[in-house]
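Help needed: design a sequence for this.
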């Protein structure tokens, strides 16, 4: 297909000018603001302890900085280990809760149904149905009510939201502690209700929540968004490791599916996090089973196991084409699954949007699922679907459901569709019994429909287990057919192996994951022999599925939730357009800050008028023109104004007693910093003159007008003299601490711990004519695009550096426009629709 370049440019320009509901989501800025303030902060602790100056001082400061870096890395290792341990404990609690709730549901059924019941229409069997239905509706209703009215963002698997977060999209409340709590409680109830969902996917979201909560504790050096993203990436790896007992698979999942930016150091941290998660869950299971010193007897280290019954089972060369065909079928079925589910999710957003409607929908689907699962086995006659319970089936005999069969026999349809899905999955994978083709076909069709409808409703719901079960039942159909056709001519043949291949095929067709799924299945089976056919199946299913649509997670991110997600590759038509075609142009209005001449009044007006989170910084380049000098964030400007206000309030205090009283009313972190530094105030000689001038400018002038740093220094000397001599040895040194460069830096950093707003009315106490120096706080070396850059390069910069916005200038450095994620995604969607 050959594109008409002019048509593409015209369509893209229309998209850039149009508004889109993507604007409801903000973006993170993961790029480091490398201002003078940033570099000064790296060494302020070292300089505060030094009396010497010059080269020797710089060498010692560098040594101290390296020591602090080592200590910081040790803290990071501890945080990742803590995240892994907590994720393992939560996974164990979830598994225990599901077992208890599910056990109660089937215990209630067993005490109502009499052992002599042999017909589905008997009174006790009908009464047991209503008890079963009521229990399922109760579980699902509580889960739906919690999700709809407490934390709606907890619905779904959470993997699309975690992918978006790590991609740089700020989704409100997605990693809050209350979201994680609702996720776990709702998930335990939803799985116990018997819906076609799993608990493995939401564990990724739960691990991310735990990582965000633990990483956001009192670790001052971990406040940067890029660092929190690293923690969330480790939490996602820990969630997969706990779900499948596959720590290596969890690390690769985070690398392949979740994370957008990945470093070698992050790989090591995620490795430790995933290892601790799987180890903690294994130890918890061992402790519960009593095999504390023999963890090999606990039956698996994850919440689900693919383990084959015969570890010596191998495949033959003639089976590889059959595996490839199964992979192609999984790709087609996965593409159809994604298409129907996405269309249904869009319909839900329009017609099932309110919390009450979502609760009613969940209850209706729970009632329908439990009814089908209860009565479907009665469709078939007892003679064709009742068989004796095998003595050596390689699975727990309690997994076989009698239904209405005589004592000592089981119903294969009830075993697959009425039992909990994870127990039925073990029968498909491990049980060396013969299952009827009609039962497998019914189970496959019913599960496919239920999974398509259920994924996306208003409860926490995973997708891995339904897909594994669906693929396993389909693969078992092929296996049973081949066994009936070829039988004893192939000694290594086993239908359970085809169930495993079918499960991998369906997972690959829907999720399009390859590397991580191969390792996850290899770890959970414990048989390296099957890695090659699994790789073949996953690759073929991905090829076939990608020919029709995208993966289920990316489809929900972009098409359903309208999140400005940037995929791994730029759209092909971006090679035909440049940055000026997509950017928000200067003539349409762009809020900027000037390097020189800004006052308190102008900065307050800018922050209160504009909703943007960053502004290009312009400087006079001669001839009445302004050139781009850098970039300053809203947060940096707001912190600077609040620091000026804090120092002004301290200076306005008349006595040391009032100063101390004033400090007690400020933020606790700031007050603790002042009290800690009372006897170690930094001599002004250890601070560079330009830095000292900047921090002295935080103080208000004597006459209330804007003055330079020298007058501020004179004002400080008079105040210190009034307080009684040398401030370093007296209690009255709090004012000196406020003026000192290091302590002013502490004000800016400590106040960043809280949420500060430029709309705070207290900022109106500042003199509006007072000069604001932003040359020390602006990012002087941001990434700046030229207006003739191709959009493929702009797209790469956004993904590679985690940019929030990109300034566009001409060849002479003059501002021409700004590009954000919204301009990129709007242009992408507009041209694709065209």
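Sure. Designed sequence:
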């Amino acid at each position: 297909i050959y594109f008409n370049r002019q048509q593409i440019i015209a369509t893209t320009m229309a998209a850039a000018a149009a508004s889109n509901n993507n604007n409801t989501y903000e973006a993170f800025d993961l790029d480091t603001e490398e201002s003078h303030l940033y570099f000064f902060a790296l060494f302020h602790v070292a300089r505060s302890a030094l009396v010497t100056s010059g080269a020797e001082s710089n060498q010692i400061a560098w040594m101290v900085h390296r020591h602090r870096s080592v200590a910081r890395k040790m803290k990071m290792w501890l945080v990742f280990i803590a995240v892994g341990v907590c994720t393992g404990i939560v996974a164990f609690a979830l598994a225990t809760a599901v077992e208890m709730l599910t056990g109660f549901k089937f215990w209630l059924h067993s005490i109502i149904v009499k052992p002599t019941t042999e017909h589905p229409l008997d009174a006790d069997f009908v009464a047991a149905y209503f008890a079963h239905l009521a229990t399922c509706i109760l579980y699902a209703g509580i889960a739906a009510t919690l999700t709809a009215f407490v934390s709606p963002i907890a619905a779904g698997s959470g993997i699309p939201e975690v992918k978006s977060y790590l991609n740089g999209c700020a989704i409100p409340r997605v990693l809050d502690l209350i979201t994680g709590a609702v996720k776990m409680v709702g998930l335990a109830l939803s799985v116990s209700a018997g819906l076609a969902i799993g608990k493995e996917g939401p564990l990724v979201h739960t691990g991310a929540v735990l990582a965000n909560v633990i990483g956001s504790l009192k670790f001052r050096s971990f406040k940067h968004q890029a660092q929190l993203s690293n923690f969330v990436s480790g939490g996602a790896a820990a969630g997969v490791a706990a779900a499948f007992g596959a720590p290596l698979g969890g690390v690769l999942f985070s690398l392949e599916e979740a994370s957008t930016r990945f470093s070698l150091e992050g790989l090591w941290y995620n490795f430790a996090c995933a290892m601790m998660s799987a180890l903690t869950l294994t130890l918890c299971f061992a402790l519960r089973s009593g095999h504390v010193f023999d963890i090999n007897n606990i039956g698996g280290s994850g919440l689900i196991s693919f383990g084959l019954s015969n570890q010596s089972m191998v495949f033959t060369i003639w089976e590889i084409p059959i595996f490839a065909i199964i992979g192609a079928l999984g790709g087609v079925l996965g593409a159809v699954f994604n298409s129907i589910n996405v269309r249904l999710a869009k319909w839900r957003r329009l017609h099932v949007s309110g919390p009450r409607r979502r609760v009613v929908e969940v209850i209706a689907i729970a009632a329908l699922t439990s009814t089908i699962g209860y009565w479907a086995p009665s469709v078939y006659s007892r003679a064709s679907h009742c068989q004796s319970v095998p003595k050596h089936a390689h699975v727990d005999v309690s997994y076989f459901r009698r239904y209405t069969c005589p004592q000592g026999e089981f119903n294969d349809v009830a075993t697959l569709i009425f039992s909990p899905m994870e127990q039925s999955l073990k029968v498909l994978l491990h049980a060396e019994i013969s299952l009827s083709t009609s039962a497998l076909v019914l189970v496959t069709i019913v599960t496919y429909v239920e999974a398509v409808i259920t994924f996306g409703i208003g409860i926490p719901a995973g997708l891995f287990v339904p897909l594994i079960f669906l693929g396993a039942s389909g693969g078992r159909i092929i296996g049973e057919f081949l066994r009936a056709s070829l039988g004893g001519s192939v000694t290594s043949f086993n239908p359970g192996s085809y169930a495993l291949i079918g499960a991998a095929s369906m997972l690959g067709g829907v999720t399009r994951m390859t590397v991580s799924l191969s390792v996850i299945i290899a770890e959970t089976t414990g048989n390296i022999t099957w890695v090659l056919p699994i790789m073949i199946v996953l690759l073929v299913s991905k090829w076939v599925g990608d020919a029709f649509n995208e993966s289920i997670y990316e489809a929900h991110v972009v098409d359903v939730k309208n999140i400005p997600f940037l995929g791994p590759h730029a759209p092909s038509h971006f090679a035909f357009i440049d940055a000026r075609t997509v950017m928000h142009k200067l003539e349409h209005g762009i809020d900027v800050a000037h390097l020189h001449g800004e006052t308190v009044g102008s900065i307050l007006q800018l922050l209160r008028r504009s909703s943007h989170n960053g502004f290009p910084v312009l400087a006079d380049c001669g001839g009445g023109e302004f050139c781009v000098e850098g970039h300053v964030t809203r947060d940096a400007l707001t912190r600077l104004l609040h620091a000026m206000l804090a120092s002004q309030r301290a200076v306005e205090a008349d006595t040391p007693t009032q100063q101390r009283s004033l400090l007690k009313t400020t933020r606790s972190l700031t007050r603790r910093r002042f009290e800690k530094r009372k006897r170690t105030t930094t001599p002004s000689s250890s601070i560079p003159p330009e830095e000292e001038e900047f921090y002295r400018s935080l103080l208000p002038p004597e006459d209330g007008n804007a003055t330079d740093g020298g007058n501020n220094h004179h004002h400080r000397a008079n105040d210190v003299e009034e307080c009684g001599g040398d401030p370093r040895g007296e209690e009255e040194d709090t004012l000196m601490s406020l003026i000192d460069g290091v302590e002013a830096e502490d004000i800016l950093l400590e106040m960043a711990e809280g949420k500060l707003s430029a709309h705070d009315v207290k900022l109106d106490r500042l003199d509006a004519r007072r000069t604001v120096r932003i040359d020390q706080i602006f990012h002087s070396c941001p990434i700046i695009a030229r207006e003739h850059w191709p959009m493929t390069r702009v797209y790469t910069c956004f993904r590679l550096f985690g940019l929030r916005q990109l300034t566009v200038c001409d060849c002479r450095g003059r501002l021409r426009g700004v590009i954000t994620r919204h301009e990129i995604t709007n242009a992408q969607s507009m041209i694709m629709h065209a």
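The first strand starts at residue 26 and ends at 27.
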